[in-house]
Design a protein that fits this description.
Largest sheet: 8 strands, mixed
CATH superfamily of the largest domain: Bira Bifunctional Protein, Domain 2
Distance between the termini: 40 Å
CATH class of the largest domain: Alpha Beta
Strand content: 15-25%
CATH topology of the largest domain: BirA Bifunctional Protein, domain 2
Number of strands: 17
Radius of gyration: 27 Å
Length: 502
RNA sequence: UCCCCGAUAGCUCAAUGGUAGAGCACCCGGCUGUUAACCGGGUUGUUGUAGGUUCGAGUCCUACUCGGGGAGCCA
């Protein structure tokens, strides 16, 4: 009886006969030779069946297996660079658990709607497999970081009472006949908890009914929110910086093969080192008005416009080449695929050409007092090669609980952390208003009812201290670290506007 | 809420207003080192829905539905 092992451990069994249990990822046959690419959850391995070496029954059974058939393969392990994992199995026996047929996700191209409808199967594909492993490591890193640094986990409620910010983006739920809402944050609750434990965090799903159909939005996403007592803005920034560095380094250390599979530029991640840049909101506003930004966007626009012309010409040439008489089928096929890719890029570039003038206008006309828009954040982030903290926003565009700045009462002690490469805001946080009177004043400005927040106000009555924290969005962090274009691949089953299946 | 794009075979896409096609998937055959293997043969259709224009609509027009991208808003 051969030893049962996994593909990840094949290196420990070179020369031995072992059994792998997995699924057929792809297969190729060449007469008396069969190549079965098998995956088992730990990796991919090419199993080679030679007709003369394998049992006749095994060879015949393996010849007719559909994609994703479940099987055991027994054979001798040998190192071979031609196999995906670097080790190959010279198979002698194949036991079919189930011969699957008609698996919908083929090794060829598919559209995103089809893939999302088949998300339960799409998991099995290499890229998706790699992304969710990176997510696992980032989530593990988050828990590890806080648990090892003296933070106590506080699970905050998901059913939340009506009071709160941005009521139009809340999902309402019937709670024994009363309307309650799915939580958008556990923040107020961790503030209470940090007065008991000093350093706490909550980690769970949050829900936002934003009608946003973009590559950065989910209606259900995961957020970790640490909160610390006796902390000011600098302490909160230091914590955010340390956490992000920890997560990036851990992922680089433990998921390098996955990042490489995803084609991530690792140098960009290696560059994520302390100290991150720190600028104030007012400095950001100056940057947006600067000649440097105008030039950056002018160059972007010129580049996008030139690329549009180039792509159109390229597509025309390829189309001519494809439809020319006497073109080989495989060549025409390849050209058709290249045309599709070019078409996608053209759509992106044309979108850029339409949007950049808007972005220029938004940046140039940016008024002190307004919130930074998505395009503004992208501009700021692009001017820096490491993450950037933007601090001290006007208090009018931020939540009531943020601490008013002592030196400049127009602004609050808050922070946003912008990830590089246009990934936008991954962290938002602040020092909290610990003065009861100031807090009440802000609540009145926002039209919030004191009685709804009676418990929260108690925290300022009984031993108030400077404190603060932040929220880090897991999916945006995963998208950034993996270098993904779209957030939907960073969570097992994405919940988005208009998508709730499977 | 607004703007742009799209919907044709199981999948990815073709089709000057004039007989709906290709590749992949699937089935059969060939090939002892393949890498989205390749070669030969076979099977595959209510062109998103409802109207309209026309001798004739996948193609043009209107509305709707669904999806993609973006704006606003946001992690």
């Amino acid at each position: 009886m051969a030893t049962v092992t996994t593909i990840a451990k094949l290196g420990e069994h070179v020369g031995e006969t072992v059994t792998l249990r997995g699924w057929l990822y792809n297969s190729r046959s060449s007469g008396k030779l069969l190549f079965l690419v098998v995956r088992d959850g730990t990796g991919l391995c090419q199993c080679v069946l030679e007709k003369s070496e394998a049992t006749a029954a095994a060879f015949e059974a393996a010849r007719h297996l559909g994609q994703e058939s479940s099987l055991h393969v027994t054979g001798t392990v040998r190192a071979d660079p031609r196999s995906p994992g670097g080790h190959e199995l010279a198979a002698t026996d194949v036991h079919v658990v189930q011969n699957a047929s008609g698996y919908p996700i083929t090794p060829k191209a598919h559209g995103i709607d089809f893939l999302m409808k088949n998300r339960h199967l799409w998991f099995r594909s290499q890229r998706q497999w790699a992304i969710l492993r990176v997510r696992h490591t980032i989530v593990e890193g988050i828990r590890e970081y806080f648990n090892r640094n003296g933070f106590i986990l506080i699970d905050t409620p998901i059913f939340a009472p009506a009071a709160g910010e941005g009521a139009q983006t809340l999902f309402a739920v019937d709670y024994f006949g009363e309307p309650v809402y799915l939580a958008q944050t556990g923040q107020l609750y961790v503030e209470a908890a940090c007065m008991a434990h000093g350093k706490v965090y909550c980690f769970g799903p949050t829900f936002r009914a934003e009608k946003s159909k973009t590559r950065r939005h989910l209606t259900e996403f995961w957020m970790v929110e640490p909160e610390i007592a006796y902390a000011d803005l600098d302490d909160v920034c230091a914590l955010a910086e340390d956490l992000v560095c920890y997560l990036v380094q851990k992922t680089l250390r433990e998921r390098r093969p996955e990042l490489e599979l995803l084609g991530r530029d690792l140098a960009k991640l290696e560059a994520v080192q302390k100290p991150f840049y720190r600028i104030t909101y007012s400095q950001a506003a100056e940057i947006l008005h600067s000649e440097r930004v105008r030039q950056l966007l002018t160059d972007d626009l010129a580049r996008a416009a030139a690329r549009v012309v180039e792509l159109k010409k390229l597509m025309e040439e390829k189309e001519q080449e494809r439809t020319a008489p006497g073109v080989k089928e495989w060549k025409a096929d390849k050209l058709a695929h290249e045309l599709l890719e070019a078409r996608d890029e053209l759509a992106d570039q044309e979108e850029a050409v339409r949007n950049i003038p808007k972005h220029m206008e938004l940046a140039a006309n940016f008024q002190w007092g307004g919130d930074l828009g998505g395009s503004d954040e992208t501009i700021i982030a692009r001017l820096h090669d490491r993450p950037v903290f933007v601090t001290h926003y006007p208090r009018g565009c931020k939540a009531f609980y943020m601490k008013r700045n002592a030196a400049d009462p127009r602004v609050v002690n808050n922070l946003d952390l912008l990830a590089p490469e246009g990934y936008g805001e991954i962290i938002g946080g602040s020092q909290r208003e610990d003065d009861l009177e100031m807090l009440l004043e802000r609540m009145r400005e926002e039209g919030l009812k004191e009685e709804d927040y009676a418990w929260y106000l108690d925290l300022r009555r009984y031993g108030t201290v400077p404190h603060g924290g932040f929220g880090l969005g897991v999916e945006r962090t995963v998208a950034w670290i993996c270098g993904l274009k779209h957030i939907r691949e960073t969570i097992p089953f994405a919940r988005m506007m208009g998508r709730i299946y499977p």
